[in-house]
Write a structure and sequence with these properties.
By secondary structure, this protein is an alpha/beta fold. It has six helices and four strands. The chain has a four-stranded mixed sheet. α4 packs across α5. The radius of gyration is 19 Å and the shape is elongated. This is Arc/MetJ-type ribon-helix-helix transcriptional regulator.
């Protein structure tokens, strides 16, 4: 099974959001009043507060869907070991899943039965394309 690591704060994923002019103006007002250092600080704080508010629902959903939380690293050695045992992996993670750059498409297809990532998947374009029909 892949090794699971807790995520470290510096690892981030860039997102884009659209806000109305009034909401953006309110954020800018709070920034200008010194409540937040910038727009990004406000948005990160708002998201963290909402996630904290919904923590029980997140935990319950993760248990119900048997999702791992954090960073899942899939190495060539791990996948080769799974292939030698005839195992087909079902990868389910909330956070970040990384497939090592030395993992071939053939090895990934032989060992990854499905992959479900709520967060981000880091893998080569070729691997992502090959696994597309196994992503849920």
């Amino acid at each position: 099974m892949p090794k699971i690591h807790p995520l470290r704060p510096p690892e981030t994923e860039k997102i884009t959001i659209n806000l109305g002019h009034v909401d953006l103006g309110r954020i800018d007002l709070l920034v200008s009043e010194g409540f937040y250092s910038n727009r990004t600080d406000f948005i990160r704080t708002a998201i963290r507060n909402q996630i904290t508010t919904e923590q029980d629902q997140v935990t319950s959903s993760m248990k119900r869907h048997t999702l791992e939380l954090g960073l899942v690293d899939l190495t060539r050695a791990q996948l080769e070991a799974a292939r030698s045992k005839g195992e087909l992996l079902d990868i389910r993670v909330v956070g970040l899943a990384r497939i090592a750059s030395d993992v071939s498409t053939d090895l990934a297809l032989a060992t990854i039965g499905s992959i479900h990532v709520l967060g981000a998947l880091q893998a080569s374009r070729e691997l992502k394309a090959a696994l597309k029909d196994r992503m849920t």
